[in-house]
Write a structure and sequence with these properties.
Layout: E1 2-10, E2 15-18, E3 24-33, E4 40-48, H1 50-58, E5 64-78, E6 83-98
Parallel strand pairs: 4-6
Antiparallel strand pairs: 1-3, 1-5, 2-3, 3-4, 5-6
């Protein structure tokens, strides 16, 4: 695992789930840009605890966030969006960068 700080664009609505002991987890697909070849990469982002609740409450699709967390190399497939990615980020800190106006 590597610790990284990335600028992420939210691509899907953050979805919150709860475990038996009422710990919340939020997951969404994000996009970060690479300087090599001017390409972008999709990744799955997971957030736990109180930060997960705040993420669902305040952020939406097309918002940009600065995320600090651990990079994992796992396979994630979303049939709904026809996405397959091998990068997952377990976020420890989330900072707003550029937000869209809520309706």
């Amino acid at each position: 695992m590597n610790y990284a700080t990335l600028l992420i664009k939210i691509m899907t609505n953050p979805e919150q789930s709860f475990f038996e002991n009422q710990i919340s987890a939020t997951e969404f697909v994000g996009k970060f840009y690479q300087y090599r070849k001017s390409s972008d990469t999709l990744c799955k982002i997971s957030v736990w605890g109180n930060l997960a609740y705040d993420l669902v409450r305040y952020y939406q699709v097309n918002d940009y966030l600065i995320i600090e967390g651990y990079l994992l190399n796992t396979t994630y497939t979303s049939e709904d969006l026809n996405i397959k990615t091998s990068i997952e980020i377990i976020a420890n800190k989330v900072y707003p960068f550029a937000l869209t106006k809520k309706n």
